[in-house]
Specification:
The chain has 394 residues and is of the alpha+beta class. It has a domain at 3-203 and 388-393: Ribosomal Protein S5, domain 2 (2-Layer Sandwich). It is built from 11 helices and 13 strands. The strands form 3 sheets. The chain has a 6-stranded mixed β-sheet. A 4-stranded antiparallel β-sheet has the order 10-11-9-12. A 3-stranded antiparallel β-sheet has the order 2-7-8, sandwiched between helices. β10 (337-343) and β11 form a beta hairpin. It is globular and about 65 Å long. The two termini are 15 Å apart. It binds alpha-D-galactopyranose. Alpha-D-galactopyranose is lined by residues 35-36, 38-39, 175-176, 178-179, 344-345.
């Protein structure tokens, strides 16, 4: 919806006047490579999408927050001074988790009415939750700053960190920083080469010389709250602990090089944990190699690294599953495809494929049909457009 339609819809839900209304937006992301490395202090290479969550916000005089979405009937109402009682809502707990995290961090936030339009497909592995978190964080902080006369610009990286904290403390998913960082710091036509150990980063222009990144959505719903994600994270911590007997200076798996790992892999006595660590260690190297390849315009190498990444997530990290593997296998059969992999946490969600531009219609048609035949329901496809990070819509 355009801005004026959104505002009209907002007034339909909340009445009142236009006074004080502001709009904010925050995107989802696609990760090009570097999966399950962020919470190991490693490298990731995500890009913000033009698919985003937009929020229309208007301050209130009291301490209530009211939330609604363009596709929901039921309004959520919460008191800013006792947010703990709203933890198990079917919808709205990401927003309220962010509000509570901001308050705890000392931000002066105000009561307000918020209406969300979510364009990032929910639960699809494209960071719909980070988009909601970042849109909420910048809306709440901006309205608070305006009310209290503060003029300092919002620190987007700080908003990303607080949103991640909200996800840890209120949603219970021990996610890394990648999604929130990408949503906060995205830049049109660039991917973000991020070092998750110290959050230093570089924007890398994405010029794919005749190729595009096509996202394939398995349409298999999943939720990270189901525990597998936190389980993988714990396995990595265990692996690090075991390797530390030989590498005492390592503070995270990122500090373990491929050579170190080959030398000391015998110290990890569980085969499962050895596989998890092998994935992380080699995936970090693949990110470095991919950034190099893209800077040199070497699409073939980047495509091969994407394939290797998926195979490792399938065989070593074991987070793919039938739907993702089918989409990837079918994609790789198509002429003009240089690489295909899952993106995000896995367990369902989306894939990303590097496809020659003139082959995109044939790709969507053939992969879509094969997927439907094998899985029994359809996949969806989007040609990714890389957009900017969280911001106010002026
Ligand atoms: C989810 C998490 C991220 C990251 C990816 C896997 O998207 O939110 O922090 O760990 O999974 O790379």
């Amino acid at each position: 919806m355009d801005k004026s339609k959104l505002i009209e819809k907002f007034l339909g839900y909340f009445d009142g006047s236009l006074e004080g209304i502001r709009l904010f937006t925050a995107p989802g992301r696609v990760n090009l490579i570097g999966e399950h490395t962020d919470y190991n202090g490693g490298f990731v290479f995500p890009a913000a999408l033009t698919l985003a969550t937009t929020v229309v916000a208007r301050p209130r005089k009291d301490r209530m927050i009211r939330l609604i979405a363009t596709d929901l009937e039921q309004m959520v109402e919460a008191d800013l001074d006792c947010l703990d009682q709203y933890r198990n809502l079917p919808w709205g707990n990401y927003q309220l988790g962010v509000a509570q995290t901001l308050l705890k961090a000392g931000y002066m936030i105000k009561g307000c009415d918020l209406m969300y339009e979510d364009k990032v497909p929910l639960g699809s592995g494209l960071s719909s939750s980070a988009a909601i978190e970042l849109a909420t964080a910048i809306a709440l902080v901006s309205l608070g700053d305006e009310a209290y006369g503060k003029t300092k610009a919002i620190d987007a990286i700080e908003m990303a960190k607080l949103s991640q904290r909200a996800e840890h403390e209120y949603i219970g998913v021990k996610c890394g920083i990648m999604d929130q960082f990408a949503s906060a710091m995205g830049k049109k036509d660039h991917a973000i080469f991020l070092d998750c150990k110290d959050l230093s980063f570089q924007w890398v222009p994405i010029t794919l010389s005749g190729y595009s990144l096509v996202i394939g959505n398995t349409n298999k719903k999943r939720s990270l709250g189901e525990g597998k994600y936190n389980e993988r994270r714990a396995e990595c911590e265990k692996g690090l602990e075991l390797l530390k007997s030989a590498l005492p200076q390592a503070t995270c798996l990122r500090d373990v090089s491929c050579e170190d790992f080959e030398k000391y892999r015998h110290l990890i006595d569980s085969e499962v944990i050895r596989k998890r660590v092998a994935h992380v260690v080699y995936e970090n190297q693949r990110v470095l190699d991919s950034v190099e390849a893209l800077k040199n315009g070497d699409m073939a190498t980047f495509g091969r690294l994407m394939n290797d990444s998926h195979n490792s997530l399938r065989d070593l990290y074991e987070v793919t599953g039938k739907e993702l593997d089918t989409l990837v296998e079918e994609a790789r059969k198509i002429e003009g495809v240089l690489g295909s992999r899952m993106t995000g946490a896995g367990f369902g969600g989306c894939t990303v494929s590097l496809v020659k531009n003139e082959r995109i219609p044939a790709f969507i048609e053939s992969v879509g049909k094969a997927y439907q035949d094998k899985i029994g329901y359809g996949a969806s496809f989007y040609v990714s457009e890389i957009g900017d990070g969280a911001r106010e819509l002026k």
